[in-house]
Amino acid sequence: MKKQRHIRTRLTFTLIGLTCAILLAVMLAFNIAMQSYIRSRVSTQLGEVTQSISEDRRGAVQFPRDEPPFDERPDHVTGAEYSAAVLSEDGSIVVVLHGERDVAEALAACVREQALSVGTESKVVSLDRGTYTISLMQDSMEQSNRLLVYADVTAITAFSRQVNVILLIVVLAAILISVLFSRRFARTFAKPVQKLSDFAAQIGSGKLEQQELAFRDVEFTQLAESMNRMVGELQEAKQKQETFFQNVSHELRTPLTSIRGNAEGIVYGVIEPQTAGRVILSESDKLGNMVEDILYLSRMGKGRQEGKAEPIDLREVLSLCVSEQHTEAEKRSLTFSFDFDEAPVLLAIREQDAQRLFGNLISNAVRYASRDIHLTCRSEEGAVTVRVADDGVGIAPEDLPYVFERFYKGKGGKHGIGLAIAKSVAETYHGTLRVWNNGGAVFEAVFPT
Predict the structure, then answer these.
(1) What is the pLDDT of residue 297?
(2) pLDDT tens by residue, 191-216
(3) Half-sphere exposure (CA, 13 Å, Cβ side) for 34?
(4) Same domain for 353 and 239?
(5) Residue 305: its pLDDT value, please?
(6) How many CB atoms lie within 10 A of CB 20?
């Protein structure tokens, strides 16, 4: 496992390292560029001076002079001064054309030691007196001699070293400033992270209270707003959960109380056993259906489903659901009318889920219809639409926004789970379920195909 560090420490070292790397790279690049430029310029000037001296000496052969010719060309950019001497075949000084003799002799000794020959590239030689760049070529006046041309680059070399020292000081100062600003920046960055971390720990401990957090950075502010929205949603979910358990307790208590009352009536002989038994069976069925609905709704919410979704004909599912409600519909003298496609209306859905969805919608219509229930099942424009409409009084406007909430019961409702299950099934298969009034209540489920 990698060693863990505080984000402030990581940011500090990252910024310092990045600053150092950039400054050192700039220093190295500048140093290389300056040295390359100086070397190139001195070598070029050295070649020009050597060529000029050679031409002057060649002219002196044709037109003898009293003084050896030398055209001194000091470089105004590098400050280098050029001198020259004539060497014999064995490397000793024949004549110094320009410059101090002891310097020329020291350089001649270097030429002998290093066995430099004519045509060799210019070389940099360090003496006690300074640094020199030298070049050798054949003497045009005397073919057996060699012409030694050299430039004193001590000043420019010293300047280069001073520049490096200055650059090093600048780098060290920049690193120091970087350390100070990096620590401050890291502290500024880590502080909101710590606040948000504390806020998250508070939420994790169950303390669902929104906090007023303001930061300079937009991203941190957005994260704080998202966490506050999450707290609001968790508060709402917690409230719904508490309401859910309260409603479950109430809904379960009612049939249990009825069962217990009738059982006591049998024991004490105050209720006719057959009558009490029918009540007990009826309430037991209600209790069993309610528990089954609660468990089914819980499984749907957790995404646990048994079986595989396969294409089925929704017309057959609707017909089966109608037949299950036939007895109850006959009691209330209700009729069913159908508007189905002639071709199969196929949808990839588990048959049990489809029966739960449409069975609850049809059961709800049977409970509120006056005379007729109209069923529509069609496949058109890349979607499957199933509509269940009754001719009852419709849903009260104040109840419409809440009909799909768990344990919400309108007038005449049972236990407030059926429509919540229908909504959950529709959303599981990426469909939508909506309701409106058109005389009576109209429930419409639409699924993409």
Answers:
(1) 67
(2) 888 888 888 888 888 888 888 887 87
(3) 18
(4) no
(5) 56
(6) 16
Kindly list the distances between the CA atom of residue 218 and the CA atoms of 21, 213, 428, in Å, as whole numbers in the listed order: 30, 12, 36
Count how many domains the chain has: 3
* Interatomic CA distance for residues 409 and 243, integer angstroms: 13
Query: Do residue 226 and residue 271 come from a single domain?
Result: yes
Q: Domain ends where: 301, 321, 355?
A: 301
For residues 148-182, one letter each, b for 16 or more C-beta atoms within 10 angstroms of the residue's C-beta and e for the rest, the string is: bbbbbbbebbeeeeeeeeebeeebeeebeebbeeb
pLDDT along the chain (449 residues), means of 10: 64 78 83 77 71 67 45 55 82 84 86 77 80 80 80 79 83 82 76 84 84 81 87 81 71 80 86 86 78 71 63 93 90 93 92 89 91 93 92 88 74 67 88 92 93
| C-alpha–C-alpha distance, residues 211 and 296, integer Å | 37
pLDDT score at 274? 87
Looking at residue 228, which CATH number applies to its domain? Answer: 1.10.287.130
Range of the domain at 225: 218-301
Strand order in the sheet with 440-448: 335-340, 372-380, 383-390, 440-448, 432-438
Domain boundary among 118, 133, 161: 161
Same-domain pairing of 224 and 260: yes
Tokens 């909101």 identify what position? 192
Burial category of 63 from C-beta neighbours within 10 Å (exposed 0-12, middle 13-18, buried 19 and up): exposed
Amino acid type, 233: E
In order, the DSSP letters of 88-115 are -TTS-EEEEEES-HHHHHHHHHHHHHHT
Task: Find the CATH number of the domain harbouring 71.
Answer: 3.30.450.20
CA 40 to chain centre: 50
- pLDDT, position 120: 67
> Which residue type does 341 have?
D
Compute the CA torsion angle 249, 252, 258, 262 (nearest 10 deg): -110
- Cα-based torsion angle of the residue sequence 117, 98, 86, 78 in order, rounded to the nearest 10 degrees: 10
The DSSP secondary structure of 308-343, one letter per residue, reads: --EEEEHHHHHHHHHHHTHHHHHHTT-EEEEEE-SS
pLDDT for the residue numbered 61: 47
